[in-house]
Amino acid sequence: MAVDSSALINWYEAQARDLPWRRDGVTAWHILMSEIMLQQTPVVRVAPIWEEWVQRWPVPSRMAASSQADVLRAWGKLGYPRRALRLHECAGVLASEHGDVVPSDVDTLLGLPGIGAYTARAVACFAYGQRVPVVDTNVRRVVARAVHGSAEPGNPSTTRDLADVSTLLPRTRARAATFSAALMELGATVCTARSPECSRCPLPNCAWVDAGRPAHTGERRKVQKFAGTDRQVRGKLMAVLRESTAPVERVLLDQVWLDDPGQRDRALHSLLIDGLVEQTDDGLFALAGEGSQLTPEPLR
Q1: Residue 248 carries which DSSP code?
Q2: Global pTM value
Q3: Is 220 exposed, middle or buried (0-12, 13-18, 19+ CB in 10 A)?
Q4: Quick check: helix, strand or coil at residue 274?
Q5: Catalytic residue set
Q6: Distance CA 159, CA 142 (A)
Q7: CATH number, domain at 45?
Q8: DSSP-assigned states of every residue in 25-62
Q9: Do both 69 and 170 map to the same domain?
Q10: N or C of the chain: less Cβ packing under 10 Å?
Q11: How confident is the model over 99-138, as pLDDT tens digits?
Q12: What are the angstrom distances between the C-alpha of 198 and each of 11, 97, 202, 211, 213?
């Protein structure tokens, strides 16, 4: 079953959320920043920080001229701070090798630091209007239901998922780009994972609805917990370093997680290995770019 592109695009043009990165005057660099931030992070948390970043770093060279620590501090509590480091690295490459301009073709985008298959196609599509399939979790869910009649998509497969969406794209570039945005919007706001609102769906035909909305028969993907995980401990350690203007003593970091010193040590060592934290020659700890660049040894 195909997806009615006209119905979907008409709905999108009337109902799309007013997200800041969709407004006039937004550059490909701004869209790239939004796509990196939105990975595994809700729109409501990203929007205010993204707007601050656009003002502070309107072009890649401005970010490249800032330190890694500056970028990590500005990243705040968005989570998965390695994304910030990779974006900083990407900014340096864009400034030095691409004339401060984000490339428009997927293959060149894929060659940039931290840019994967989804992000490259999202930038090519949403910033430059390229006719390329853009597949995220929301898109996979809509295609699974509307086209294949399944309650949930199966395991991700880049080849299969891209082929699925490619066959649905309208022929013209402009409509294809809008269709891609609309497909994603539908999955994010109507055809949601837990509570799809089929009464609000603009699609006149849906294989899943036609089949009586059969229940998902496979194992549901478990929602990843946060409380008590190494991720939570890493976040607490990073918060101490972000709030300090100078390297800190180990005792300050030890105080953030007293319940399980072994877990705390493991989390700190992982931050050192990931390059998010550095240890100075005199044993203090600092954000990336503010330490001594020493190779970390296992903490004892």
Answers
A1: B
A2: 0.91
A3: exposed
A4: coil
A5: 35
A6: 17
A7: 1.10.340.30
A8: T--HHHHHHHHHHHTTS-HHHHHHHHHHHHHH-SSHHH
A9: yes
A10: C
A11: 999 999 999 999 999 999 999 999 999 999 999 999 999 9
A12: 14, 47, 9, 13, 10
